[in-house]
Amino acid sequence: MDFTCIESCSECCISREYYPTLKFGKVGVLVLPEEKNSIEKLAERHGISITILPRIGISETKSEKPTIVLAYQLMGKDLDGNTCPFLEMDSAERSPHGGYKCKIYQDRPLACRAYPIIESSPVTSDSKCKFCESCGTPSGKIESELESLIAIKKRMATTAPNIWRYATGIGEIEYKSRIKSGWFLI
After folding, report:
1. Is residue 93 part of a domain?
2. Is residue 145 part of a domain?
């Protein structure tokens, strides 16, 4: 079945999850280092305040922090980490499928282009996607999503012995005492 957004859905742009655990806080949209500056310039052009935090780093030694950042993350604009800052929720104009429009759709990060295909073993679709919930794994018209995922994997490939994950410190207020912030060697 060909993938298409479910009528009036923008859930993938609104809800963020704790990943890989609550300790690390809500995760943002993956942004590669070569995408970071253009995302920041798009935000400036649209007059939008954004937060981009590190996500994955590497180092040759178990130093105090990574020496190279492999990926960043665009955080949601809400205090709990939800809602992409580029989502036009206050506009009456809607996307072709009836959901909220993305202000940077043509220039969105590779991670957005790959969705709902996610990295796992084997590669699969996100079970939280409303299309995937109701129709199962898409089997057609997902070539561009797969190409985007492959590009991300190639750019993040590393042989570094030490991999770090950044804890965002962002999430619902009732979990604040359990959510960490900063770099953790994984």
Report:
1. no
2. yes
Report how far residue 170's alpha carbon sits from residue 155's, in angstroms, rounded to the nearest whole number. Answer: 26
Structurally, the chain folds into a number of domains equal to: 1
CA distances from 47 to 1, 35, 103 (A): 39, 18, 11
Give the pair of three-digit tokens for residue 161.
């012995």
Hey, which residues does 162 pair with through a beta bridge? 59
**pLDDT tens digits along 88-125:** 988 777 777 778 889 999 999 999 988 877 776 677 77
Hey, what amino acid is at 28? G
Does any domain span residue 159? Answer: yes
| Domain with 113 in it | 11-83+104-176
Longest dimension (CA), the chain: 52
- What SS3 class is residue 119? coil
- With beta carbons less than 8 A apart as the criterion, state whether 133 and 11 touch: no
- Tokens representing residue 115 in the block: 């969705």
Cα angle: 82, vertex 174, 13; to 5 degrees: 10
0.85 exceeded by the pTM? yes
